[in-house]
Write a structure and sequence with these properties.
The protein is of the alpha+beta class and 219 residues long. It folds into 2 domains: 139 residues, Sandwich (Jelly Rolls), CATH 2.60.120; 73 residues, Winged helix-like DNA-binding domain superfamily/Winged helix DNA-binding domain (Arc Repressor Mutant, subunit A, Orthogonal Bundle), CATH 1.10.10.10. 41% of the residues lie in helices and 22% in strands. The chain contains 8 helices and 10 strands. Helix 6 packs across helix 7. The longest helix has 26 residues.
Length: 219
Amino acid sequence: MLKVLLKNPIFKDMSYDELKTCLEDIDTEFMSMDKNSVAYDFNRNKKGIMFLLKGRAKVEQEHIDGTKTFMKYIKPGDVTGVLSIFSDGDFYPTFVHFDLSSEVMYLSESALMMLIQKDKRLMRNYFSFLNGQVKYLLKRIDLFSVQNTEERVAQFFHMTMEMNQAKLELKKIELSEYLGISRSTLYRIIDKFEENQILTIKDQKIDFDYRKYALMADL
């Protein structure tokens, strides 16, 4: 369990033994989440964070008209629920749908406060993590502000390369949902990029030449 937690940026630069010591007298709750169960909606509104230990979940935002926007997948080592804590009143802008049977470690707001005060690294890492979440949301906003679908796909690959990931973690069917476009449109655009040697995808590794794309778009 601790080895999975060490993947999380909140526990960056900590050893196995250091993390074990920090968690010793912290009130943690381990929960099993059934496949298709949901967390962080208004019917399941515990104020705390969840570290995913096993399984997978999808973070979605539900709109007034009932439509949903896919935000991201969380995998073992990831944390979710940070917007439910340290806020006045109930605030659940997204909900978490477990698409696989999963195991999570839950920390209440008070338990998290105790934990991050145990080691200065934890406090710094936590605020650094929040900073990264804000940057991620801003990039999502930038992406959705692009009306042209081809440009939106190009921006996605460009952002992925900028973040030094160079790895496509989403399947194409998931990527179409993430970008808010149809699968056929996504496949057509990817085929076009590959034909023009702008994009290569091999074993989930991507290489995208945004400069070449910009030149092609200007033609």
